[in-house]
Design brief:
With about 210 residues, this protein is of the alpha/beta class. It is about 35% helix and about 25% strand. The longest helix has 16 residues.
Length: about 210
């Protein structure tokens, strides 16, 4: 398949790109800093782009079979709009070019209510204080995706960490998998790739949790 990955230069995005190339997909990896991208492969095109720039998003999406979005920014006390505005541009470009399959990463932190399964530190401190502006913008992104007319799947990981390979993980509709307070990046990538060949989770928002 021809795949475009937004957020390709982040920790999860790099794993995503490696796995896509290993599966012999042709990949357009979009990043604001292509000179810093660590991969160089035959079927990889590293493109300078910014999700805030509709023209570059249009260029990246044209001719693709699917869009994988794992855009993100660090926590900030300043207003954050990259999730909603960036995704709005992605959706506009996909509709313009007739690309229907979208798999995008959000977060279990989009739950508007406190859930004891999140844990006290995350649910009562990190999310409402340090991550307040990020977790305010992610639901706006989700609403845009859900109200669109594409074949979308939203993936809501818990706290991300690294494992060398795919582990045992579970998915469930909602914001968090019971008992799954962490999500391996390898597991997240594995689930995202499965969505390219199945319609099981089209028009669904799925939480993903790793159990070691």
């Amino acid at each position: 398949m021809n795949i475009v990955i937004f957020g390709a230069n982040g920790p999860t995005g790099q794993i995503l790109t490696k796995q896509a190339l290993a599966a012999e997909h042709t990949v357009v990896a979009v990043t604001r800093h292509p000179e810093a991208f660590p991969l160089q492969k035959v079927h990889l095109h590293v493109m300078r782009g910014d999700v805030f720039d509709l023209a570059s998003v249009e260029q990246a999406v044209a001719g693709q079979d699917a869009v994988l979005s794992i855009i993100g920014v660090p926590y900030s006390r300043k207003p954050i709009a990259v999730y909603s505005q960036g995704t709005s541009n992605i959706l506009q470009a996909m509709n313009h070019h007739g690309v229907r399959r979208l798999v995008c990463v959000s977060s279990g932190g989009t739950n508007p209510h406190y859930d004891s399964q999140e844990g006290f530190i995350f649910g009562r401190i990190i999310k409402p204080i340090f991550g307040r502006t990020a977790y305010a913008d992610m639901p706006r992104m989700e609403t845009l995706v859900m109200n669109g007319n594409l074949d979308w799947t939203i993936v809501r990981p818990a706290r991300l960490f690294d494992t060398p390979t795919v582990t045992h993980y579970q998915v469930a509709q909602g914001y968090i998998v019971s008992g799954g307070r962490k999500t391996s990046r390898a597991d997240l990538v594995d689930f995202m790739f499965q969505q390219l060949t199945t319609n099981e989770y089209v028009h669904k928002a799925e939480a993903i949790g790793t159990f070691l």
